[in-house]
Amino acid sequence: MDEMFQTRIDTVAAKLNQASVDPELKLGASDALREVRADQRDVLTQDGREAFVLRYLQREAERFRADDETLDALDADEQRTKPLCTCSDSGCALKDGRLPVLVENAETLEQGLRQFRRRHRGNPVVLDDAEHALDDKVGRVMQVYDHIMISLSNGIPIDEVRALRSDDADAEGDEQAAAPDPEAAAPPAE
Ligand SMILES: [Zn+2]
C-alpha cells in the first residue's frame, strides 16, 4: 500500500515542479492536497493505520456500551447493535475496545490482523468494520491523487475532473471507466 501512495506522491510532486504546467492548475492541486492531508496521515504509514484501527475499535466499543445519556457525550447518533465479536471470551480485546496483543506486537498491521483472525475463536465483526472504514479512507485519498494527476497531465481544472467522474458514474454506474488516464507512469487502479 505504501508504494502505491509513494508512486502517486512522486508523480504529483514532479508535475508540480514542471514549469510547463499551468499555475492555476497547480494551485487547484495544492488546495486538494491540503484538504486530504489529515486523512493521508491516517492511511500512509503503519503507525497511522494502527492508530486509526485502534480509534475505531475504541469508539465502537463505547457505542456498543452506550445508553441514551452517554450516547450524547459520544457525539454519536445511535448505539451499535451489531456485536463487536462473536467469541465467548469475556477478556476479548475487541469487546473492550482494544487492539489484540497479537496485532499490537505484529511486524505489520496487516500481518497481525491475519494472525489474529486465524487464531481467534469467533467472528471479529468490529475488526471487519474497522478494515472497511480504513479501505474507504485509503480509496478516498487515492482518488484525490488520481484526480490531481489527471488534472495536471491533461490540463483540466480539478473541479472539472471531479465533475467528469460523477457524470461517468451517473451515466454508466461505473466510476472506474472513462476519465482520461493519468500518465502511463501511474500504477493501475486496484
Ligand atoms: Zn473475540
What can you see in these coordinates?
This protein is mostly helical. The chain has one domain (2-175). The chain has helices at residues 2-16, 23-44, 46-65, 68-74, 101-105, 109-119, 125-154, 158-172. Helix 1 (2-16) runs parallel beside helix 7 (125-154) and helix 3 (46-65) packs across helix 7. The longest helix has 30 residues, at 125-154. It is elongated, with a radius of gyration of 20 Å. Bound molecules: zinc ion (ZN). Zinc ion is lined by residues 85, 87, 89, 92, 94, 120, 122, 124. Zinc ion binds at residues 85, 87, 89, 92, 94, 120, 122, 124.
Compact description:
With 190 residues, this protein is an all-alpha fold. The protein has one domain (2-175). It has helices at residues 2-16, 23-44, 46-65, 68-74, 101-105, 109-119, 125-154, 158-172.
Chart the SSEs and their pairings.
Blueprint: H1 2-16, H2 23-44, H3 46-65, H4 68-74, H5 101-105, H6 109-119, H7 125-154, H8 158-172
The protein binds zinc ion.
Which tags fit this structure?
190 residues; mainly alpha; 8 helices; binds zinc ion
The count of DSSP E runs of length 2 or more, i.e. the number of strands, is 0
Poorly predicted regions: 172-179, 181-186
In which range does the helix fraction lie? 55-70%
What's the structural domain tally? 1
Number of helices: 8
* Distance N to C terminus: 11 Å
Which compounds are bound in this model?
zinc ion
Rg estimate, integer Å = 20 Å
Strand count, sense and barrel status of the largest sheet are: none
N-to-C SSE string, H for helix and E for strand: HHHHHHHH
Mean model confidence by pLDDT: 86
By helix and strand content, what is the structural category? mainly alpha
Hey, roughly how much beta strand do the residues contain?
under 5%
> Could you say which overall geometry the principal axes of the C-alpha atoms support?
elongated
